[in-house]
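Worked example 3 (structure in, sequence out).
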């Protein structure tokens, strides 16, 4: 009866020290007190059942007790009750709401798999695979997470039959992005497999197009982990020599390099683009070098690659078009990629200098226009530069430094400036012609412009009023 009280206090007490000491005493009781196997099994069941306690702090204490029991109990005791530990912890991993709790459950499962011999791990791996091959989405998600722990903590997945079975499950989950959690945990498994056995993963040519598909996925986490996997794969290849050296990669199949390029451009143009700009810039730099060295890989099998298409120009122009519309994150990503091009592949990038300068010149003009409007409102000179403008100016200076001869940079910048001015003149001429052909439509367009300007000024006035602590317009009597 006293031990039952201690077990309850190890979970229900509001004091952390009391929970800790009560749990330690109870574990020493289980390890040292002589009891029958049935009694020990009942005690272990109750120990595992406590991890489902509704209180967060008590639940975490119960998980810590289970982890301590796995580490301190004799191997034969842990092996005998391994299924009980494994099933209880796996179910809790799927039900746990807190990040700290999920991390604690994962550490407990990791300790269990590290302690058990291969013979005892085999049936547990079978449980996880049967769940992963089922139809229950929630159970599949949890099982994929657990399979990742098997990859980290055991060599059982290294066996060819188990490896093929795991890879088959991950491919099935990646075939459809309807449930992003399945795709995410499948990619995490692939990432861990690639870290442990890179040659086996890179040789599976059917897997990598599915990873490419996830670059423009349905969730930022899916995009982020797929980018990490692709970056890890590309780091193992030399962009100038992987074809000549016959290195194992799906990129040697014609068309796949261009599909990867399109997926990366779609990723950087979407709201799902990861925040790790350095990895993105490094990946695009590798793509630029590989595309320049092996342009034939960007064309499908039925194309001879002898037409006027230039995949390198397509890449630079696509990035330039992405950076033209307003958008801080999108422009920062593109400008960092252009900076990497100028630093590590200047001999390739400088052939397309005008395309790189076009979005920089647009940002420069937008900043100048904003400062002119602010100066008119304030009656004084304003020279405010935001982060994107500062990054664009730094990139422009970098291009000027690496470009030789210097006249090449001046000619490119002048050409971009003239083209922008010509387009502006064409738009003005077009408006004059439209006003002459259809005065009514021109008047309506002018009225809408005035309404937008009025709304903009009203919004600006309200923002200033709120900044001064006032919420209503002052009424004069």
């Amino acid at each position: 009866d006293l031990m039952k009280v201690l077990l309850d206090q190890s979970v229900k007490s509001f004091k952390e020290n009391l929970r800790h000491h009560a749990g330690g005493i109870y574990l020493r009781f289980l390890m040292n007190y002589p009891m029958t196997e049935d009694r020990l099994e009942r005690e272990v069941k109750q120990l595992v059942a406590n991890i489902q306690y509704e209180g967060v702090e008590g639940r975490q204490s119960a998980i810590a007790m289970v982890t301590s029991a796995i580490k301190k109990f004799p191997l034969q005791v842990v092996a005998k009750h391994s299924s009980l530990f494994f099933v209880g912890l796996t179910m809790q991993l799927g039900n746990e709401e807190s990040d700290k709790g999920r991390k604690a459950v994962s550490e407990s499962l990791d300790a269990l798999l590290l302690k058990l011999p291969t013979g005892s791990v085999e049936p547990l791996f079978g449980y996880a695979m049967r769940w992963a091959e089922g139809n229950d989405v929630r159970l599949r998600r949890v099982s994929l997470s657990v399979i990742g722990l098997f990859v980290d903590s055991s060599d059982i997945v290294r066996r060819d039959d188990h490896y093929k079975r795991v890879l088959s499950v991950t491919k099935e989950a990646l075939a459809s992005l309807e449930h992003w959690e399945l795709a995410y945990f499948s990619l995490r498994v692939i990432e861990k497999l690639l870290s442990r056995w890179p040659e086996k993963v890179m040789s599976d040519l059917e897997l990598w197009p599915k990873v490419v598909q996830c670059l423009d996925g349905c969730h930022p986490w899916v995009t982020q982990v797929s980018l990490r996997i692709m970056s890890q794969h590309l780091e193992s290849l030399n962009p100038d020599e992987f074809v000549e050296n016959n290195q194992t990669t799906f990129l040697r199949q014609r068309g796949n390099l261009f599909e990867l390029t399109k997926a990366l451009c779609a990723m950087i143009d979407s709201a799902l683009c990861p925040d790790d700009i350095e990895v993105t810039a490094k990946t695009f730099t590798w793509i630029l070098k590989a595309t320049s060295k092996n342009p034939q890989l960007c064309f499908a099998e039925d194309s001879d690659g002898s037409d006027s298409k230039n995949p390198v120009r397509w890449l630079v122009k696509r990035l330039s078009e992405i950076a033209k519309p307003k958008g801080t994150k999108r422009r920062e990503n593109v400008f960092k990629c252009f900076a990497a091009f100028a630093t590590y592949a200047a001999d390739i990038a400088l052939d397309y200098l005008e395309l790189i300068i076009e979005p920089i010149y647009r940002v420069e003009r937008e900043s100048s226009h904003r400062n002119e409007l602010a100066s008119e409102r304030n009656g004084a000179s304003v020279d405010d530069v935001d982060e994107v403008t500062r990054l664009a100016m730094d990139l422009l200076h970098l291009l000027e430094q690496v470009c030789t001869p210097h006249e090449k940079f001046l000619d490119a910048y002048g050409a971009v400036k003239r083209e922008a001015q010509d387009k502006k003149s064409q738009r003005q001429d077009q408006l004059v012609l439209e006003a002459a052909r259809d005065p009514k439509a021109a008047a309506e367009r002018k009225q809408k412009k005035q309404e937008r300007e009025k709304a903009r000024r009203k919004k600006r006035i309200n923002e200033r009023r709120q900044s001064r602590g006032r919420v209503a317009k002052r009424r004069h009597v």
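Notes: The mean pLDDT is 87. The first helix runs from residue 2 to 12.
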